[in-house]
Amino acid sequence: MKPEISVIMSVYNGETYLEEAIESVRNQTFKNWELIVINDCSTDSTSEILAGFASKDERIKVHTNEVNLKLPTSLNKAIFLSSGKYIARMDADDICLPDRFEKQYKFMEEHSDVALSSCRFMTVKNGVYMSGGAGGRCDNQALKAMLLVANPILHPGVIAKAEVMKKFTYDTTLTCTEDLELWTRMVTENQKIEILPECLLIYRLHDKQITSTTLQRQHTEVLKIQQKYYASLLQEMDEEMKEFYISGIYFKEKADIHKFFTYAKWLKRVTNKNFDEGSVNYALFEILAEYKRCGVSKSDIVKVLLTCNPFFLIKEMIRRKQTAKKDIEKCMKIAKDLGLKQTSGTKQYPIFENR
Predict the structure, then answer these.
(1) Which of its termini does the chain have fewer beta carbons within 10 Å around, N or C?
(2) Sign of torsion, CA 258 260 264 267?
(3) Are 327 and 131 in contact, with CB atoms under 8 Å apart?
């Protein structure tokens, strides 16, 4: 029987978490899937683990690269080996919740205009669990605007139409930002992207991740991608704006409220028919929320907020508070169902650890 969902995974030396990741796919309530795993020249016990799973579950198909091709090329290889109506991403160190594919398949079937969607998630690091993305908007216009300032799409939580993934594919010249490049390119070419507001994945954080070890390369790649995104849909940034964008907007290593104010005024000035004005305001609001967590004083943030449309501000603060509360309650219920317990937390970011 032809699978409805092709799950694609690339793994390199993933023995630590690989079994748990694959078991979470096998334990799905939705059964009509295939898992295509690209073993990218692993030197640990990854090969043996994959062989064991493939021998007992014919839905699991393993392909081993002769040379290390890296993630984007390996994912493209898996895409063209797939036969499902939809392609779902999965990493070798994450955990699918049991109803992930069932809910994502239903969402895509009911929203035929959506090319790609992702989901809400929980993060886990050193046994500590935290809600991810609580309170954020999930609609296409908001995500399109958020892509101006961040990457709001969880890569391993994605499901997409197979024909779309086979048309666009990943840029193999990139090493750690292939997902951001793909999302911005899709949006530029009028592909609709949304998020299903259901927590369906546990996203593992650990020190060996690419995102923890290649910061300077990320800076270079992100700037290249975002220059193209801005130029295609808005206006090119000048050199001074580019420098602040990377350090003060996207990565927020040098949060500067005065330069943020200048950037925000410029962004609003160049906003055109490609973007909904309210969604751009929302994206800026999200960066200000991050600035607060970066240590920028409350008084400085309030000064900027006072320049915003008061009706938008009040409406957005109420919406975000209500949505975040609902998102966190869902995560707490999931944690309870999984046998986790809350040990500490805040209204927006509840933390759980293994019992």
Answers:
(1) N
(2) positive
(3) yes
CA distances from 298 to 188, 244, 252, 289, 291 (A): 36, 21, 16, 10, 9
Give the phi and the psi of residue 106 in degrees, each rounded to 5.
-60, -45
User: For residue 28, what are its two tokens?
Assistant: 């799905």
Q: Give the right CATH number for 5-209 from 3.40.50.720, 3.90.550.10, 3.40.50.1980, 3.30.460.80.
A: 3.90.550.10
Cα separation, 284 vs 87, whole angstroms: 32
The pairing of beta strand 33-39 with beta strand 5-11: parallel
| Contact partners, residue 336, CB within 8 Å, separation at least 6 | none
Give the separation between CA 13 and CA 44, rounded to whole angstroms.
Answer: 5
CB 62 within 8 A of CB 50: yes
d(CA 63, CA 255): 44
Distance in angstroms (rounded) separating the CA atoms of residues 315 and 30:
38
Domain ranges of the chain: 5-209, 213-312
Place of tokens 């993630």: 71
Q: What is the DSSP string of 223-257?
A: HHHHHHHHHHHS----HHHHHHIIIIIIS-SS--H
DSSP state of 149: T
- pLDDT tens-digit series, residues 160-205: 999 999 999 999 999 889 999 999 999 999 999 999 999 999 999 8
Distance of CA 134 to the CA centre of its chain: 13
Yes or no: say if 203 and 124 are a contact pair by the CB < 8 Å rule.
yes
